[in-house]
Design goal:
Layout lengths: L1 H18 L6 H5 L16 H6 L2 H18 L1 H28 L6 H16 L9 H12 L4 H32 L5 H9 L1
Helix pairs in contact: 1-6, 4-5, 5-6, 5-8, 6-7, 7-8
């Protein structure tokens, strides 16, 4: 769903840019390939294939059951789509704030492309937290939109630092409300995970 919604957003932003007479780099069009996973909704993996693949086959079966649940439960599918759209737009606003904090303004279309590419990159971590890769993608996409590579990298570093700060601030608060307040200890969590 994340890939599909992201690809649709990239297609829309690319088409808007083309209608406005702006050049869209070919690598950004590649982001629209994320539409293809929707075809997985139509696939039923044969039982022979599942049993031959062992552990990977079991993972495929779970994946297939999850897709079947989404296909048959339109309410859950709609909720998942709305949640993903909300996450993308919140991420785009955060990116716009990051650029604004260094005295630059970017269009929401560019911010959406950045947040979608960031989301797609998070699916495959080549380096820990995609350190360096996210910054390079931000720099390159920023350069394509008329800013400099350095400005894109600076905005990316700001979003990474802000994300870490939010995590460090919210983690103790979440721990307090979810575990400490309810007298849940680490040993309780270990016991539940074994069960």
């Amino acid at each position: 769903i994340s890939l599909f919604i992201g690809a649709i957003l990239i297609l829309i932003t690319n088409l808007v840019n083309v209608l406005l007479g702006n050049h869209v780099p070919s690598f950004i069009w590649l982001g629209a390939v994320g539409v293809l996973p929707v075809l997985l909704l139509l696939i039923r993996f044969p039982d022979r294939m599942i049993t031959r693949l062992g552990r990977f086959g079991k993972m495929l079966r779970l994946f297939e059951e999850g897709l079947l649940e989404l296909r048959t439960n339109r309410k859950h599918l709609l909720e998942a789509v709305l949640c993903q759209l909300t996450l993308y737009f919140i991420g785009a606003i955060a990116i716009m704030f990051a650029f604004a904090s260094i005295g630059l303004s970017i269009d929401i279309q560019i911010a959406l492309v950045l947040v979608v590419f960031n989301s797609i990159m998070n699916l495959v971590n080549i380096t820990p937290g995609n350190l360096g890769l996210k910054e390079a993608a931000f720099g390159y996409i920023s350069e394509m939109s008329g800013l400099t590579f350095t400005q894109g990298v600076a905005a990316s570093v700001l979003t990474r630092v802000a994300g870490l700060l939010i995590t460090f601030i919210s983690a103790p608060i979440a721990w307090y409300f979810l575990f400490h307040r309810m007298n849940v200890t680490l040993s309780d969590l270990r016991t539940r995970s074994r069960e």
